[in-house]
Amino acid sequence: MDTLLLSRIQFGANISFHILFPTITIALGWVLLFFKLRFNATGDKKWMEAYLFWVKVFALSFAMGVVSGITMSFQFGTNWPGFMERVGNIAGPLLAYEVLTAFFLEAVFLGIMLFGASRVPNWLHTTATFLVAFGTTMSAFWILVLNSWMHTPAGYEIRDGIAFATDWVAIIFNPSMPYRLAHMLLASGLTVAFLIAGISALRMIWGDRQESVKSALRVGIILAAGLIPIQIFAGDMHGLNTLEHQPQKVAAMEGNWDTQSNVPLLLFALPDEEARENRFEIGIPNGASLILKHKADGVVPGLNDFVAEDGTPEHPPVAPVFWSFRIMVGTGMAMLALAWTGAYFLRRRGAGFMPKPMLFAFAAMAFSGWIATLAGWYTTEIGRQPWLVQGVLTTKEAVAAVPAPIVMATLVAYLVVYVALILAYMGTITYLAWKASKGEPLSTRQYPRSGEAEVIAVPGE
Amino acid sequence: MDMFNDPNLWLPWVFAALMGLSILIYVILDGFDLGVGLLMPLSDDDEKDRLVASIGPFWDANETWLVLAIGLLLVAFPVAHGVILTALYLPVAVMLIGLILRGVSFEFRAKAPIGQKPYWNGAFFTGSLMASMAQGFMLGMYVMGLTWTLPHVAFALLTAVFLTVGYSCIGAAWLIAKTEGALQIKAVGWAKGGLWGLLLGIAAISLATPFISPRIFEKWFGFPQLLYLAPFPVLSAALLGFLWWKLRRMPMVDDRHAWTPFAAIMALFALSFGGMAYSFYPYVVPDKLTIYEAASAPESLMIILIGTLFVLPTILAYTALSYIIFRGKATELRYD
Predict the structure, then answer these.
(1) Is it true that the peptide bond before B282 is cis, omega within 30 degrees of 0?
(2) Please, what is the end-to-end C-alpha distance for chain B in angstroms?
(3) Which residue in A17, A100, A127, B81 has the most C-beta neighbors within 10 A?
(4) pLDDT tens string B63-96
(5) Which of B115, B89, B41, B103 is nearest to A421 (CA)?
(6) Nearest-CA residue of chain B relative to A168?
(7) Which of B70, B78, B336 has its CB closest to that of A74?
(8) For residue B228, is it within any domain?
(9) Pairwise CA distance, residues B95 & B93, whole Å
């Protein structure tokens, strides 16, 4: 394998590993704030217990996110020096603002949020929780601004091959940013909703009947059931935005070779790039035309429009985009079915009396958000190839001339570490749940937290 | 004062200064928490928990200074970023894997089943060692002009050892300030044992730098600059002497002066860093690329600078707040 492919795999592996954890911390921060505010308002201990359990998951996820994020910032230079040389004038300030406005905020207040509860007043602890949640969201904002700019660049001009910023408002609010940001924040919300519902279901399977677990399950299911239709709508809007700005990506997502009307929605196919056709197609007639153009004879762009004179394709590799997209949509549909069935039983029977099969289904889907998120990112990022910045810079131009064996060696080292850590992470969360469901106290604290004594006194009213 | 009229001249300078400041803060702050990680194998199980507790609320924010430093290199001097990081591809990878290992071990050792704890302690030490050695190695390679020849690599391996021992020394000095009792007495011993790393590290770089580059030799040993540069070596020697003298008298009655070794080592790091900055200025890639040649477009730098001027004081303020909240001797880490 050559350096370009190896570098792509390496960066892909790093960023895939990284995104798993911010996806959790972005939304989990807000859920923790919700638990904390419920506790402040009601004084009900179950909310504090839920907080104390999930803050551990948050701390673990945050650490995983921080260390894998540091890797990212170095790999721009080690593997993709051309990226910063050519578009650094735009990417640089966006990354700088991420570090300055978000990264420090999260990192510093995380210490107070995690370990400061008995050292600072309650309001400051709640504020720290808010600032951490706010920081993770700001971080996502700046990163998605940059990522969206790479898909739909705006507000720049090229002088001597180098991009210069001309309009920062246009750069930040580039055409795909609002859609991508909404899609990702909702993905984070769904990932966390299913994680909370899944782990809480697992604890109930293990016989844990604590109020905090029931409440967490309820929060998880309601969040999931509420967000999933919004996400499907946002995803559809994002798809239409992509159709406008990156038609070749949509063509690959649909597996559509020729620009034509009445394009079917393919449920299954094996795209063959050599023969430039699909094998074993199974599709719903007019489906893709209906979704993308809202009429049965709508014209959908085809991949064959994106081939250079000499026959080299100028569209992304078809099969990975086609399949990632289907995995994402399939997972989303499974989430919709489960979340709404769950909401139905929640309403009929209550969180404490969910049928066993429902609990098993939620436990099985605890990490389903990861699958959908990764599949979605693969769709959009592989779908941008061969470009690194759409129409401005190709991936090939940006890669570093590091010998392939060195890239290979470091890639293997990263992969070994990542696989071990993902297993340890999932194992540890399961272990924490098991320990908590066996009644091991979350807190062995003997003294009241500052502010707690007054709060506890309130519910008598 | 013409310099201030032309942003092409003063912006790169300002960003080089900001980047230097970030690197210095990083080396001091993550230096002490990497150092504490290096001391893990020397302590017993109970002490290990206190070692970790002493850096628990801080390490995350400490590491953020590395992200800021590398971020500033990335955004202000993109060409240099590419040249330096591709030249240091392998040590960077070693450092990153080290930082990953230690960052996550921190969490796992407290949350995974108790039977796994020794392994995560081991990973915490290994990660700290990999990161420290890699940073020392990169420092040596940078001084040698980023060329991979056998003598350069040998020198870099030496600086790797010295910096690692130096980190263990500042880590021990941090523990003197943050612990008490038997552990504090142990920490005094560790700090004494680490002084040679500081001494040899500073000596090696101070001697090697001018002899590698005639330009740097001229900057230091020409006249009259030799006179006004004299405080650098004189103060460094005085600080080392003070540390050696002070550590033999620690811990003192009523825990007096528990902070002085840490403060002295901070000053030593700052002086050494200042000396290196003087040597290499105006080059960002030694003797190849100046900060002026490598700088980004002024309009992009300006927009970062405006943000930085607002945000950096805020960051420093809330970092200070966190150090104030978690002041005093380290106690058990808990979430409630």
Answers:
(1) yes
(2) 56
(3) B81
(4) 888 888 888 888 888 888 888 888 888 899 999 9
(5) B103
(6) B303
(7) B70
(8) yes
(9) 5
Count of Cβ atoms closer than 10 Å to residue B249 Cβ: 9
A7, HSE (Cβ side, Cα atoms, 13 Å): 24
Between CA B164 and CA B136 the distance in angstroms is 7
Q: Is residue B323 part of a domain?
A: no
Question: What Cα–Cα distance (Å) separates residue A21 from each residue in A128, A140, B51, B56?
Answer: 20, 12, 27, 20
Q: Is B336–A449 a contact, with Cβ atoms under 8 angstroms apart? A: yes
A217-226, A345-354, B86-95: which is most confident: A217-226
Query: Is residue B76 assigned to a domain?
Result: yes
- In this prediction, residue B238 carries a pLDDT of 92
Q: CB of A401 within 8 A of CB of A3? A: yes
Residue B72 CA to residue B222 CA, distance in Å, equals 32
Nearest to A390 by CA among A143, A88, A87: A87
Q: Are A288 and A263 in contact (CB under 8 A)?
A: yes
Strand partners, A157: A164
| Assigned domain for B315 exists | no
Specify the number of domains making up chain A: 1
Q: A296 CB contacts (<8 Å, ≥6 apart)?
A: A262, A286, A289, A290
**Cα–Cα distance for residue pair A293/A153, rounded to 1 Å:** 24
Query: What is the extent of the structural domain holding B59?
Result: 13-296
How many separate domains does chain B show? 1
Q: Does a structural domain hold residue A274?
A: no
Q: In this predicted complex, what is the ipTM?
A: 0.81
Question: Quick check: is A281 in a domain?
Answer: no
Task: Single out the residue of A286, A303, A292 nearest to residue A240, CA to CA.
Answer: A292
Across-strand partners of A265? A284
- Which member of A63, A73, A85 has the closest CB to residue B71? A73
- Do the bridges between strand A265-272 and strand A277-284 make them parallel or antiparallel, or are there none, so unpaired? antiparallel
Render pLDDT for A237-247 as a digit per residue (tens, 0 to 9): 998 888 888 88
**Contact (CB<8Å) B322/A431:** no
The answer to whether the CB atoms of B67 and A84 lie below 8 A apart is no
Closest residue by Cα to residue B239 from B221, B257, B262 = B262
Phi, psi for residue A286 in degrees, rounded to 5: 65, 5
User: Would residue A268 count as lying in a domain?
Assistant: no
- List the domain range (segments joined by +) for residue A388: 3-259+301-460
DSSP A413: H
Distance between CA atoms of residues B102 and B96, nearest Å = 10
CA distance B55 to A359: 40
